[in-house]
Amino acid sequence: MVTAVGDARFRALSKRAVPIDSEELRRLSPMLILAPHQDDETLGCGGLIARASALGLKPLVAYLTDGGASHVGSPTWPAERLAARRNLEALSALRVLGVEPEDVVWLGWPDASPPPSGSQFYDETLQRLRRWTQDRGARSVWAPWSGEAHCDHLAAAVLAKALRDVLEPRPSLFSYFVWGWEEVGVDDAKCVRSLDCTSSVEIRRRALACHETQMTSLIDDAEFAFTISPELAALTGRTVEIFLELA
Asked: Which residues contact 81 (CB under 8 A, 6 or more apart)?
């Protein structure tokens, strides 16, 4: 069996975590999951999405970037084609997790090149996301942990906090982990929460398999090609997901 990334830290945080039960999930719904890329939704909180969907809570998902920079220099898969394919893969994965297309929004930032906070593009995105989320009455926002070492994950964390501050009523804010399991500072987290996701392990594995451009050698002519490692994919095998509840 492949060991998931940051397994020792995951076990340590699990011992401190306060469980989230179904009643709390209902109080936190509708929930908005902000995903930097098309696959982060499954790796970081696929169990949350699947459990909320099973309870009929209709989680919302917003994709920050177009995902077009995972494979660079491919003559057969230029960025525009890759981005379109990744969106289709994301819809397939979300369908497995229980989310319908009408509950998904695409924000269209360029992959690996987030606009700076305060720029016109950033402010337009924030207002668009505010309107979309406000109309659906979101009570909680879930985004990557701000310590994750990827510019798009950090940008998503910053955008989530800005969104929380402009929504009325003010929603709860949570962080999830994709790359952050091995980053310095996780152990200092003050409010650690856990969610039992035992029933969704196979669902999450099937959802992740939908991301073929990231999981397989479908694109074999790129100068640089990102693929999800077995250790990262093994996050979907955990029976518990860990989150940070932010003040």
From this structure: none
Instruction: Compute the average pLDDT of residues 135-159.
Output: 97
Give dist(CA 114, CA 88) in Å, integer: 22
User: 52-66, 172-186, 190-204: which range is least confident on average?
Assistant: 172-186
Hey, which bits of the chain come out as E strands?
18-19, 31-35, 60-65, 71-72, 104-109, 140-144, 172-176, 192-196, 224-225, 240-246
Tally DSSP H helices, then E strands, for the chain. Answer: 9, 10
**134 pLDDT higher than 80:** yes
Distance of CA 160 to the CA centre of its chain: 12
**SS3 of residue 228 by DSSP:** coil
Looking at residue 184, its pLDDT comes to 77
Q: CA torsion, points 127, 133, 138, 139, in degrees to nearest 10?
A: -10
Q: Which residues contact 24 (CB under 8 A, 6 or more apart)?
A: none
Output the furthest CA–CA distance in the chain (Å, rounded): 50
Distance, in Å, from the CA atom of 3 to the CA atom of 232, rounded to the nearest integer, reads: 9
162/34 Cα distance (integer angstroms): 12
Cα–Cα distance for residue pair 66/51, rounded to 1 Å: 26
Angle between helices 79-97 and 40-54 (to 10 degrees): 30
pLDDT tens-digit profile of 56-101?
Answer: 999 999 999 999 999 999 999 999 999 999 999 999 999 999 999 9
